[in-house]
Amino acid sequence: MKIFHKIHLWMALPFGIVMTIVCITGALLIIEKPVTTLIYPDFYEVKPIEPAPQPAPEPAPQPTCNGDCQNCKTGCGGNTTETGPVKAEKAEKAPKADKQKKLPFFETTLKLHRWLLDTPQTKGERTLGNTIVGISILLFVLDLLTGLVIWWPRKKQTLLHRLKVECGKGTQHFLYDCHVSLGFWTLAILLLIALTGLTWSFPIWQEAFAGLLGMFVEEKEIRGLIFQLHTGSWGGWVSQTIYFVCCIIGASLPLTGYYLWLKPKHKHEKKK
User: Fold this and answer.
1) Under DSSP, is residue 159 helix (H, G, I), strand (E, B) or coil?
2) Rounded to two decimals, what is the model's pTM?
3) How many domains, the chain?
4) Which single residue of 1, 89, 141, 170 has CA 20 to 30 Å from 147?
5) Residue 138 sits in which domain range?
6) How far apart are alpha carbons 142 and 150 in whole angstroms?
7) Which of helix, strand or coil describes residue 36?
8) CA distance 167 to 172
9) What are the beta bridge partners of residue 47?
10) In a domain, 64, yes or no
11) Quick one: which of 188, 109, 204, 206 has its CA closest to 141?
12) Angle, to 10 degrees, between the axis of helix 203-213 and the axis of helix 219-231?
């Protein structure tokens, strides 16, 4: 068991801050649309572009009498000649939709979330920031799994204590419960977010994940499904609210872990 404690600790130490940044920015991106809509109600409204004014159509050419008309009553009832060809009217194209861009705050949040502000110059280009994010997410996955092994109770009596957060036993005990219990309750969602997030960092993982999903959905739907699983949009505001809370808790896990590492329980007890 000690080996899992060491793995859990030393994988989190170097990239824990990056994990926190990725989780916080991910939570902000989940609420991007409702927040933007609340501040600017017409921001996501699709506005048609009004077509340019068209010149008035030319009047149709009128027939003129050639001089041989005998029964002309309203202009010409006999042989006539037209002054010119009639022009056919062109069909107007449907106006295109004018889509709004992201707010500057959320543009920066996305750049921080995916590239740590080290944005690529061209689409698909790998950067140092993107690599660091990918490695941090991968270590986060391993940290969650080793955390589950450490959390797993060996006695039934300890199971209840591992599932709840107690608030009346001091700050250190409270933070320990937050790290252990909340980490367990959010484990499944955080793993789903992390595993789908790796598809943006490592092309080989994207191909493998797409191949797995290809067994259940059509190829053209795979990318959209990965995005829905990553952002929680598959279940509307209910799933997105759950994802938001899980991301906030996920951001706190490295921070509470740092605190428990810097101030372990046995040192605290020795001072007493």
Assistant:
1) helix
2) 0.76
3) 1
4) 170
5) 2-47+98-271
6) 12
7) helix
8) 10
9) 98
10) no
11) 188
12) 110
